[in-house]
Amino acid sequence: KKLALDFSRLQAFKMGWKSYGDPSYVDHVMRYVKGSDKNVKPVNGSMDFYETVMKEALKYEGQPYAWGGSNPKTGFDCSGLVQWSFAKAGITLPRTAQEQHGATKKISEKEATAGDLVFFGGTYEGKAITHVGIYVGDGRMFNSNDSGIEYSDLKSGYWREHLVSFGRIK
Catalytic annotation on 143? Predict the structure, then answer.
């Protein structure tokens, strides 16, 4: 909840607005989760895990994409941002999108929860898996791409056309 409020305040400040989004968003979502299947758990069993990953990743929102970048000094490419952010939550991931794909258990889109990874192919010449993002729920991901470090929509358009799979950290 704190992460959502902090993000809302930051975005409002950036845009010069009084408010941004729905400050009660988490409460609205949780009322549905509380009444649902008791076995549903956030990825890795903890919302703290996801909050830690996203708190780190969001520090770099708006920064440009950096091919081969894997830390704040060099900037980030897609897999560098994922690797760095997950490391802050105590999860060691391989360096490339292809390797990260191999390090996850493949899950369906319906099974995907905030903190899972989403993989893409054909975004440039090369390996089968060429891009990775952090799934944030509601058909969206946070990632580093040619437009910079940002949220992206998975429901249609470019990312939907290149979507390969979702993966959960083993």
Answer: yes
